[in-house]
Amino acid sequence: MKKLLFQFDTDAFASVFDTVVAYDGGADQVMTYAGVTPDNVGAMVEGAIFTRPPKQKKFTALFVGGGNLEAGQNLLQAIRRRFFGDFRVSVMLDSNGGNTTAAAIVAKLAASGTLAGKKAVVLGGTGPVGQRAAVMLIKEGAREVVITSRKMAHAEEACEAMRTRFGVELTPVVAVTSDDRAQAIADAQIVVATGATGVTLLEEHHWQNLAGLEMLADANTTPPLGILGMEMYDKGVLRHGKVCWGAIGFGAFKLAVHRACIEKLFEANDQILDAEEVFALAKLMA
Q1: Is 261 part of a structural domain of the chain?
Q2: Which residues pair with 93 in a beta bridge?
Q3: What is the pTM of this model?
Q4: What tens digit of pLDDT does each residue of 271-285 get?
Q5: Which of 45, 66, 173, 196 would staple 82 via disulfide (CB 3.0–4.6 Å)?
Q6: What's the pLDDT at 198?
Q7: Spatial distance between the Cα atoms of 254 and 248, rounded to a whole number of angstroms
Q8: Contact 48/89 with Cβ under 8 angstroms?
Q9: Can you give the pLDDT at residue 27?
Q10: 85 conformational bin, left if phi > 0, alpha if psi -120 to 50, beta if neither
């Protein structure tokens, strides 16, 4: 029985990246669909759940992607509403790589030191990766997790969205300049940068002498990096006495987590792989 993965993308074009990883994760056939919405997904879900007998439904799975996390969450909810009884298949949500990238970052930080009781700051944290990383950090016992943005409204919206979805309390902070962000991390032990590609969020002199700072991670792969003084290849490297993880440094692990999630989809027909499930798998693999 062939393992069939239907890739539902909320963007105008389906992600080539996600398609490649789906094959590498063990799917025999990947069918991609772009511009998928809660309004048009129904017939496709019915095609997936009504075709194979119960014992063989695990060989059909769905993947929800695209660049917009909110759109992906809404699409996942619409898909789940179509399920009933044993008429369901496993689904993974990874809009903009948010779940797998965040899981890789936080799992590697957790393997590098203690997260519980620490203050963490997610710089530029209003996107999918930043939001999910903040949730994973607070669920791992961080005493406070801050999300910064250039606009307070955006930081507040991200924190409220994660409170509604995961029941966690995050702290929004406005930080327009590098000096503002330096102030935001002054008493932090963990810093994660998840800002826009090629945008510097923190300069080296802002963090190198912070005695209390223990770990940093930067998700940016396009120069200039989000945190200057690090390298994208840093893989738990000590810099100024702090453990540093660059985007390429944890990138191979992110891909491994993504592939493992695809493989797991075909183990049963009733799995929902969202942030919690993806992170749980990442922690086992780290």
Answers
A1: no
A2: 64
A3: 0.95
A4: 999 999 999 999 999
A5: 45
A6: 87
A7: 9
A8: yes
A9: 98
A10: left
Contact indicator for 230, 220 with CB cutoff of 8 Å: no
DSSP characters over 36-89: --TTTSHHHHHHHHSSS-GGGGGGEEEEEE-S-HHHHHHHHHHHHHH-BTTB--
Residue with tokens 């891909």: 255
Which position has the token pair 């919405």? 37
Pairing of strands 144-149, 235-239: unpaired
Per-residue pLDDT reduced to its tens digit, 155-177: 999 999 999 999 999 999 999 99
Burial class (CB in 10 A: 0-12, 13-18, 19+), 159: buried
Print the domain residue range for 24: 4-93
Q: How far is CA 265 from CA 3, 7, 22, 79, 261, in A?
A: 10, 13, 11, 15, 6
Q: In angstroms, rounded to a whole number, what is the distance separating the alpha carbons of residues 41 and 45?
A: 6
User: What's the mean pLDDT in 178-185?
Assistant: 96
Q: Are residues 70 and 133 in the same domain?
A: no
Provide the 8-state DSSP code for 242: E
Identify whether residues 185 and 246 lie together within a single domain. yes
pLDDT higher than threshold 90 for residue 20: yes
Estimate the share of the chain in helix, then strand, then coil, as percent rounded to the nearest 5. Answer: 45, 20, 35
- Is 264 contained in some domain? no
